[in-house]
Design a protein that fits this description.
Largest sheet: none
Number of helices: 5
Number of strands: 0
Strand content: under 5%
Helix content: 40-55%
Distance between the termini: 12 Å
């Protein structure tokens, strides 16, 4: 299996590539069909879900801010030009090939 390089500049990253891709990979099967819908799903996700997705805690209260819709769109367009559904297909096919 090949690794997916992070298309972003190292400066200014708040969320890891894995966390952003997992957020999209969970939002699409939940019904999100656009970048805005993926962002809305992330915004409404509970803190324990964001923790499981790898979103880091910030501040003294340990709140996990989800990636914004614009961050999700920028990363997904750069990492997977086929769109959110193509991302999910690639992730599942890669997982299946690793399991064999």
């Amino acid at each position: 299996m090949t690794t997916l390089p992070d298309p972003r500049d190292r400066r200014g990253r708040r969320h890891s590539l894995v966390a952003v891709l997992l957020t999209a990979a969970c939002a699409v099967p939940a019904g999100a069909r656009s970048y805005l819908a993926i962002g809305q799903w992330a915004r409404h996700a509970p803190q324990h879900t964001l923790a499981r997705l790898g979103i880091r805690a910030h501040g003294p209260l340990g709140v996990r801010p989800p990636p914004s819709a614009s961050t999700l769109r920028r990363v997904l367009v750069a990492a997977c030009p086929g769109g959110p559904a193509d991302l999910l297909t690639r992730l599942v096919s890669g997982w299946v090939s690793c399991r064999r």
